[in-house]
Amino acid sequence: MSSLDAIDPAAGFPPVIHNLLSTQTDVLAQAAALVLVRFFNPIADDFLQATGLHEILAGREMEALLPIPGSVNYSNRTTLWEAHGGQRVSGIGPLEDGLMCVFADEEGPHADRRIPDTNLIEYRGDGLVGHQRMTGGNQQLANYQAEKRAIRYWHKPLGGDWEFESWAVIVERRYVWGKDTKKNWRREYAWVLAPVPSPFRDTWPAEVLALLAEDTHQTRDDTLGTEAPVAANPSDARERYQRLCASVESRERQNSGRSTRTVTERYFRSAQARLAVLLRADGRCENPKCAGQPNDVTDKGDPILEVDHVNELARGGRDHPSTMIALCPNCHAIKTRGSTRRALQKELLGVARGLHLQLSTREVLGL
Ligand SMILES: [Zn+2]
Q1: Is the pLDDT of residue 366 over 50?
Q2: CB within 5 A of ion ligand 1: which residues?
């Protein structure tokens, strides 16, 4: 009897828990999956075999880890919190099971952006006002990025419910210009998330593994050498415009090879070229024949302008302010689908080049 006590057949669990785990295989699998992901994440490919846990999980590891992506919806963060714990407000934080989450709310400060031609999601970091710092939620995400651990990605579309949309891993982080909740320009973190089927590494697509292998875990600082794209006077605007263009051009020269990385590189470069064009436009439609643009502004206080490549030909070429133009919604529609679009595009290409040259040359005093 004493030797049996020494072996501890209940494995340290109270009898009721031990009984549950030894008779309910689903409960045992759920417990095993949670322990695995919480304490052994990222899970090496042969870990389940090596530990014998594959017998307990029996191929059910993706279903055992609750909640299952796409299976739960909550109308607000309070009901989500009541079901899963964690915290109720911030964009980045764990649930009560300790697994890290990011929350992207299209109606709130943490909207996400999908990177075109990829499955990747751009998620802006933690911190509502002022420059974002590597503290709090940002620091936690940086740790997950360095350790290549999966996080949960929650998303709330416009007018919709919170949904646990997917597991994801962080494949890149940037420091970019953005606007805070007081509508002031600031430097903020842009996290690039790649959705994955589960936190188990052997389910991750080869493309995601390649992105993770290339990631340096360093911040790519897109704001380096630039200033906020807002200016107090024309000579200040010229200076800031030139700095943004120089940053775009220096990154054009760095060729990054791999296809998905090239796409994200171009996406961020193009975002910076847009900021330069908006600075150049100074709140006005750049079509010289514009018949009038809306006086209203966006929720972030920006004029309603759409920045685009002047034509499809330019789109295939450079993401550079000299081939891009800021237009009001009406002029943008004419340029894109009006019957006079070809003549207009030709004219606007000359306008974009002219405006770019005007701001690119040194100011000559006395002229
Ligand atoms: Zn216009």
Answers
A1: no
A2: 285, 287, 290, 293, 328, 331
Alpha-carbon gap, residue 86 to 88, rounded angstroms: 7
* CA 326–ligand 1 middle distance (angstroms): 9
Helix-strand-coil split of the chain, %, nearest 5: 40, 20, 40
Alpha helices in the chain (DSSP H): 2-7, 15-23, 25-39, 47-51, 53-57, 61-64, 77-84, 136-147, 206-214, 234-252, 259-281, 312-315, 329-337, 341-360
Distance 159 CA to ligand 1 centre (A): 31
Q: What would the pLDDT profile of 289-334 be if each residue is shown by its tens digit?
A: 999 888 888 888 888 999 999 977 666 668 899 999 999 999 999 9
For ligand 1, the distance from its centroid to the CA atom of residue 291, given in whole angstroms, is: 6
Average pLDDT of the residues in 202-217? 93
Q: Using the 8-state DSSP alphabet, how is residue 362 labeled?
A: P
d(CA 251, CA 276): 15
User: What are the CA-CA distances from residue 345 to residues 187, 272, 351 (Å)?
Assistant: 34, 22, 10
Is the pLDDT at 12 greater than 70? The verdict is yes
| pLDDT the model gives residue 90 | 84
Domain definitions of the chain by residue range: 2-64, 73-223, 243-360
Distance (Å) from CA 252 to ligand 1 centroid: 29
Distance (Å) from CA 296 to ligand 1 centroid: 14
Q: Which CATH architecture has domain 73-223?
A: Roll (2.30)
Per-residue confidence at 16, pLDDT binned at 50, 70, 90? confident
Confidence check: pLDDT of 363 > 80 = no
Q: What is the pLDDT of residue 11?
A: 65
Cα of 277 to ligand 1 centre, how many Å? 15
pLDDT in tens, 249-264: 998 877 656 678 888 9
